[in-house]
Amino acid sequence: MFQHFYEDFKVGETVEIGRHTVTQEEIVDFATKYDPQPFHTNPEAAKDSIYGGLIASGWHTCSIVMRIMVDAYVSKAASMGSPGMEEIRWLKPVRPGDTLIIKRTVEEARVTSKPDRGLVLTRWDVYNTRDEHVMMMRGYGLFGRRMASK
Questions:
Q1: Whose C-alpha in 103, 108, 132, 134 is 20 to 30 A from the C-alpha of 51?
Q2: Mean pLDDT across 22-33
Q3: Which residue range(s) make up the domain with 12?
Q4: Does residue 150 have a pLDDT over 60?
Q5: CA distance linking residue 102 with residue 128, whole number of Å
Q6: Within a domain: residue 91?
Q7: Residue 104, C-beta contacts closer than 8 angstroms, at least 6 positions apart
Q8: Ramachandran area for residue 84 (φ above 0: left; ψ -120 to 50: alpha; else beta)
Q9: Is residue 90 part of a domain?
Q10: How many domains does the structure of the chain reveal?
Q11: Per-residue pLDDT averaged across 66-83, rounded?
């Protein structure tokens, strides 16, 4: 049933988990619903902002990364959710037409007080195709252990 368990997350391993090209339409749609600031929703008004043009909401970028995580491994894993994020940094604006490249690095893995699960601290780094580091986030995931599924 599951393809990934706690034991499959190797500390120090970095892998590219996916890519996504951001469109102006999705930037405006997301921001209109969840972060309606003019530099996210109005291309004309955004020209006069400190960004000089339309940019994606940082929360939109986080949501894109979440979708890629789910498609790449979480939906195939013995995932038990997450106790939360430790850090999110929006380092450079994400603009229409940017292709985001998402890399996952496992920073820590430990068995919890419940032997059927482990906690994995992961760092996700997001780059555009100009190799600019646009976002970084770190957080924990709770995963079932392979031995517990037998």
A1: 103
A2: 98
A3: 6-149
A4: no
A5: 9
A6: yes
A7: 14, 15, 16, 17, 69, 72, 122, 123, 124
A8: left
A9: yes
A10: 1
A11: 96
Residue-averaged pLDDT of the chain: 96
CA gap 87, 106 in Å, rounded: 15
**Looking at the domain assignment, is residue 1 inside a domain?**
no
- CATH code of the domain in which 37 resides: 3.10.129.10
Indicate whether 36 belongs to any domain. yes
**Rounded Cα distance, 9 and 105, in Å:** 9
pLDDT band at 88 (very low <50, low <70, confident <90, very high): very high
- pLDDT recorded at residue 10: 97
Q: According to the model, what pLDDT value does residue 111 have?
A: 95
Rounded distance between C-alpha atoms, residue 63 and residue 54, angstroms: 18
Quick check: 22 pLDDT over 80? yes
* pLDDT 10s digits, 89-121: 999 999 999 999 999 999 999 999 999 999 999
Tokens of 123: 């760092």
